[in-house]
């Protein structure tokens, strides 16, 4: 194969011969007026041959009423398709591929280049050295294909793909160095520091592959996807070597283009992972921070007010503490009317005013001490602390695995799939159902605390007041978290994956919508029905808050049962819990039989339509079982406390 520096000028020389015909090369070949027009179109001394988006736009803008120009990509495939390159050519509109092919064939048939006009002899030498078949000098050895753009707003799909491919920059050594391919994020910082470059992240969600690519600054999401489509249409990736990195071209044709319409299986263990036939290409190129909205300033103002309250409360708490320490042991002599006196310790102050107690609720030091306090009342069920701690660690373990697979590209994906299929790994993937332990704890504490309170106060459970109290206690903080998530988190970080954890999570997570989910469905969260509205798990505002919705719904059911237990009939309340538990078991089992779901996490995550996620994982009738068991446990401890503890 000839060196690149020899072949690049060849393509330029070929391009200027577009109107030659057989009569031009009898013995001493001369060119006609048409050929002279094509020759004048290219400045061979300053021409590099590399495709360029700027040259493309300049070429198109050079068109006039007298001279119409077009920008062409000359694709040359050599050595049976194992090598090739692409050149960018600005040609007069009447120059065609057939003219070039005919000229190459004629030059190959000439016995000696001395028979060619002297000004064209370098062209003849280059063509005969690289384009002609050494075994048969009368035929060309390589394939040449010309694709042209006649406008900077092409109307054909092929033209749009060529335009997009040029816009994304072609081949640049430094950009190639800063790019990654299969589960390689590339060099995000170096790419952003490179003039005329921008970073794009391409994710193929269904097959767990992510690529970070450094492209030209004129590239964008739509143009990147068009470039991938162009690669799918290319017959030979080596023919577009100067236009698209051959590794990327081959990857797209094999993994993305080749998978369309086929069923792909990621095998490994007892539960193979089916991948949808249509692989989604999700591209992120815009890493600029969003413009602040009114909600951003409102949220910042709320944060400022909270910061002032915390500061004032902490100072007040410190003043009260030091005052109390200074008054300890101090005696005051009280003098009566008869002149007698009696020394005694100063009496403690009365209860603080309401405003002071409300302000002290924001005290940083007081809350810190309460949070780290290990004091427990005599009737506390201390084993729940251990259960809570183990459950937190278990859930963190499972979600760390999920984030490692979904957020951090895995270079050893095949090994990971095999490990997931092991029986011993069920301890990790089972963490997705470990949240049931928190439902158990909630049910236990509801029954234990509510019944004790009703017994001590010798009154019935006020159901409306209990529900309103819980709603206020949760929702005040919930509103602030939604505001902070929606308006502040986009400004809190950067990096290759950052937009996918802010923009996409804000705009509907897995469903990749365009509108913010929290702006559309915040009301569903505050009504604690976000496990029903919207339909898809990924379309929810902060989708992980499905747990809060279930917990609130369980509380409403549970407090009604406790009201029956405390005010009407213990036996009836036990019957209600038993019937609800059996109904939950029957419903869950029936859904699994109807849909044929597997007891596995990955098939549930990858299932098209998210039926298992929506119909089972986040629905109260399938998840209330542990909550009811927890309530039963709390009532048993209250009714048979000593026997249960001894056991």
In short:
This protein has 647 residues and is mainly alpha-helical. The protein is built from 27 helices and twelve strands.
Structure in words:
There is one protein chain. With 647 residues, the chain is mainly alpha-helical. 52% of the residues lie in helices and 11% in strands. It has 27 helices and 12 strands. The protein has a 3-stranded antiparallel β-sheet with strand order 2-1-5, with helices on both faces. Strand 8 (264-266) and strand 9 (273-275) form a beta hairpin. Helix 18 (463-487) runs antiparallel to helix 21 and helix 22 packs antiparallel against helix 26. The longest helix has 34 residues, at 294-327. The chain is elongated and about 115 Å long. The termini are far apart.
Distance between the termini: 84 Å
- How is the biggest beta sheet arranged? 3 strands, antiparallel
The total strand number stands at 12
Shape: elongated
Please, what is the average pLDDT? 75
Q: What is the number of helices?
A: 27
Structural class: mainly alpha
Rg calc: 37 Å
Taking pLDDT < 50 over at least 5 consecutive residues as the criterion, the unreliable ranges are 1-37, 39-48, 261-276, 341-347, 508-513
Strand order of the largest sheet: 2-1-5
